[in-house]
Specification:
Order of helices and strands: EHEEHHEHHEHHEEEEEEHEHEHHEHHH
Length: 448
């Protein structure tokens, strides 16, 4: 069978393309390359994809935030690089030097309750969900256009990405405005719309405006989603309309109708029901058995669905080991949980954080920086003893700074804000030794 396009007329060309289906050779129906399809034919129809997206967003939307003011731009760049490279211990050390925590009531109120219908967690889950499904997420800011509070957001509203159309500007990768299918003809000023998007490589056959949209991770899974959906239907059909497993027939001669009815009734009485599962049927008749039906297990439908789901998990950087039955060791499970946080959850939150820092926070002051506290994840918490050991060796910090690194309350004792140096460290020359006089093998055996 060739390629079949089914389209319905629409007042909006983008909406029309969203309800395009493609039927490929082999009978697999592939969802169209559109945000609507990824939501309707993916998230809303495939329970495993629904569970995977929810697993990520429930974690990414619940991370507590703090607001800082940058005090050292060099250390701030080093801190961001350490976070990007997952060097969490170095990041914690650099954050103390790069930023100081501040409290801005207006900003905190906006983040805690972005609008009248959502709190921070619900709002963030919506933003992250659309990003993961469609590759784009949009936030509309309700802000005054004049006066002393001009440009300062009063409320934030998440806009469903399938209803947003970007109007390109005259220059390369510039935006003239945004339009929602809810309100055709009304253009939204780009300063009022925040846009998060994934990388979207375009080809020479695409238009300049195509690069303004992000690419959905599910775009690379379109054929996979079609196969998975077909496997779901096949498995359900087999359970609902299970045909006969085989044919029982006489080896010599022909069974009479009365004999067939008697044999069927006897079989139903003796071998049907949950308690008879796996029992062996016994008869004195000279009969033979021909198997004609296969179970979903025999047809490898279940295993095929597992393999396809593993591919989808790989697209979202979720470790397969987190959901496999043969993940036997506690160490493997611990590492898988940590990889899930570092490779799937944190990058999702970082996309949102980047938008906040470049678009929302500048309206409330200079050099402000929003940061999420990833140490609240149990999967990210290091061994407390080990952490105390490396913090204790940082004698360049005051005791109160060390307490802050350990997420402990600072002491009001003024002595805790002073710097101290280890008293047991003295120059070699004071004891009459040089570097060449030290037995390094002895030090290796006695590191203390």
């Amino acid at each position: 069978m060739g390629l079949l396009n089914l389209q319905w007329p629409s007042i909006h060309k983008k909406a029309a393309s969203n309800i395009t289906w493609r039927l490929h050779a082999g009978g697999f129906v592939t969802p169209a390359d559109s945000s609507d399809s990824y939501i309707d034919q993916g998230y809303k129809m495939l329970p495993n994809l629904y569970g995977l997206i929810n697993l990520i967003t429930k974690k990414s939307s619940s991370i507590p935030h703090k607001i800082f003011r940058e005090v050292d731009s060099v250390k701030a760049r080093e801190y961001k690089a350490a976070v990007y490279n997952k060097n969490w211990q170095k990041a914690e050390r650099l954050k103390v030097k790069a930023y100081e925590e501040v409290f801005i009531p207006e900003l905190e109120e906006l983040l805690a309750k972005p609008n009248d219908l959502q709190d921070e967690r619900e709002f963030n889950q919506q933003i992250d969900g659309y990003l993961l499904l469609t590759g784009n997420s949009y936030i509309l800011a309700d802000m005054p256009i004049a006066g002393v509070n001009r440009g300062k957001p009063k409320q934030l509203h998440g806009i469903p990405s399938p209803v947003v159309e970007i109007i390109p500007g005259t220059g390369l990768d510039t935006v003239k405005g945004y339009q929602m299918t809810y309100f055709p003809g009304r253009m939204i000023d780009p300063q009022r719309m925040g846009h998060i998007k994934y990388f979207n490589p375009i080809t020479s056959m695409q238009l300049n405006g195509d690069s303004l949209y992000g690419m959905s991770p599910l775009k690379s899974c379109r054929n996979l989603l079609g196969r998975y959906h077909s496997a779901d239907i096949a498995q359900g059909a087999m359970f609902k309309n299970m045909g006969p497993a085989g044919i029982l027939s006489e080896t010599e001669g022909i069974l009479q109708p009365a004999q067939i009815d008697a044999m069927r009734d006897r079989f139903r009485q003796m071998y049907r029901g949950e308690g008879a599962a796996g029992e062996i049927a016994i008869t004195s008749a000279n009969v033979k058995w021909e198997q004609i039906g296969l179970s979903p297990v025999d047809l490898n439908i279940i295993e095929a669905k597992k393999e396809m789901m593993n591919e989808i998990m790989n697209v979202y950087n979720v470790p397969i080991a987190l959901f496999t039955e043969n993940n036997s060791t506690d160490n493997n499970m611990t590492e898988a949980k940590k990889m899930f946080i570092t490779d799937a959850v944190i990058p999702t939150a970082e996309h949102r954080k980047s938008l906040y820092n470049r678009w929302i926070l500048p309206a409330f002051g200079d050099d402000l920086y929003l940061e999420y506290d990833y140490s609240t994840f149990p999967e990210m918490q290091e061994d407390l003893k080990a952490k105390w050991e490396w913090v204790g060796k940082m004698w360049q910090l005051t005791p109160n700074q060390q307490l802050t690194l350990m997420d402990q309350e600072e002491s009001e004792d003024p002595l805790m804000d002073k710097h101290y140096v280890p008293s047991n460290l003295i120059p070699l020359e004071e004891i009459g030794l040089g570097v060449g006089d030290i037995d390094t093998e002895l030090l290796d055996d006695n590191p203390s």
